[in-house]
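Can you make up a protein sequence with its C-alpha cells?

===
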Amino acid sequence: MPRSSFYYKEIKRDYHGVKEAILSLYKKNRKRDGYRPMTFKLRQRGFHLNHKTLLKLSLIHI
C-alpha cells in the first residue's frame, strides 16, 4: 500500500455560508442567472469557489 494512501485524510468542507449566498442571489435575480454569473458574483462577495463546485451545490439546494 502506498504511504500517501495510508495517511490520506479527506477534508470536510463547510459550505453553509455559500449555500445561503447562492439562495439569496438566486432569489434576488428572479432565477435568471446561471452558474457562470453566480460564480462571478460570489467571487465579488469574497467566496472563492470553483464553478463546478457551485454548479454541484446549486443543483442540490435549488
